[in-house]
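Chain X:
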Amino acid sequence: MNTAPDSTTSTPVGAIDQTNAAAVPRIKLQSHGFAIDHPDQTLGEQLMADALGVTDREAMHGIIRQLVKASVSGEGPDEVTLSFMLSMVRSIRPRDSVEAMLVAQMVSVHVMAMRCAHHLAGADDLAQHDSAARALGRLARTFPMQIEALNRYRSHGEPAITVQNVSIAGGGKAIVGNVTQHARMIVSDNRPASAARKPPKAASARRRRDCADAEREAEA
């Protein structure tokens, strides 16, 4: 199979017949592109498209072609790295074309980060060390941002709720409003805030008596 499909229009990929489904095929690199390594070409395309989370041949070819280019090491694409990248995409299980593109970026960023880590470990001088360290730092920060973007997209933009440090005294109740990510519950004991801050009257009177006694002793 060439890297580009023959059809000029999107070609839907049929649903997989679970009775004939097998392991997701590998991609074999060729001088002119790549091929899906499966005895049944149609079933192989169905399995690969399902694994990548896309619905047509053009999208499948596009994602694979981009991963092939991202796997380049030295003179050309690396089949071992490509197999790893495809395996990671399958394990994350993208569910549509948006997730497929984002997951392809994620695995590519990871591969680039590991290459930078390798260059950093073998740096011969300070300039190489600093260059590899900066690139690794940027990629390492990008990866968790991509994970967050994927989780946010999968949850339709709804923020996760994390309740922290909640303690409710006897007779109290928790009041929750406009809860956002890592929001705290506001705990109320049914008393006005001003009343809760006022010291008991007995304690105030005792302090006044103590102050008066101290003044009398000082005058004596």
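Chain Y:
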Amino acid sequence: MVELGDGVVGGCGDRSVLVTGASGGIGTVTVLRLAQRGFDVIGAVRTERKARALVEVAAARGLWLRTVVLDVAEPGSCRQAMERVEEMTGGGVWAVVNNAGIPQAGALEDVRDEQARHALEVNLLGAMRICRLALPGMRRKGAGRIVNVSSGLGRVPWPMGGWYSASKHALSALTHCLRIEMAHAGVRVCLVEPGAFATAMLERAITDLTDAGRAGDTPGYAASRALFGSVNKRVPGPEPVARAIEQCLSAVRPRARYTVGLDARLLVPLHTLAPLWLSDRIKHRASGLPRTAEVPPRCGDG
């Protein structure tokens, strides 16, 4: 049986999991995998239409899950949704997977304040807001799991995607602090860092680059769009990320950090160990950004 958010409470009460950003990509694959593994899954989506679509996808596979409408960028929506989740689970979820995210690609010079704030609300503040709202129930249970989905680009800052890298880098730092702060309460906190996988995220990044105000003649835009498009065609689907998230929830002693994807496992140590000039050169080449300014002609030159 499949229920919407106002349906019958059921499933594994001590294995209830809220997954944000459940309407596509990593989120959808994750909620379906967890439901198949017997977790009591609540998929958080932004509209009732997306909620119905997610339930239909699950029903087609014979899976049971519930949904709640939640916009992580809106504090009021987060409070209302988490109150509803507490009612649905009879005291709060055992685990939270903060998966919702947006890319906000573009040169830092071209990203407006409101765009940057929205990226931080979705990728960073919203995730920590959900943690804060879920923790009282976890404390009462004396146990819980929090899985924050960051990105390999949180440790490898990438040109033309600076706000995304910044938000994910900050999420990594806060997750580290939260893991230490909550250990005494029986709440285990994990960070999952995916590399590139075939989801709508890369497609949205390409749209961001296309929509940027000066995209027509600014260095880096054409090459970055081509890079993202090429990567999106070559990388696998997000199933490996869903497996890592499941491991965070299933392992008795989950690791603090799971880096998923060949590109992330290569780029992270390369960025950490390689000299800065080499890392810069790789990024310049990949993004199509010139390393030096064009020298203007001197007066008197033909």
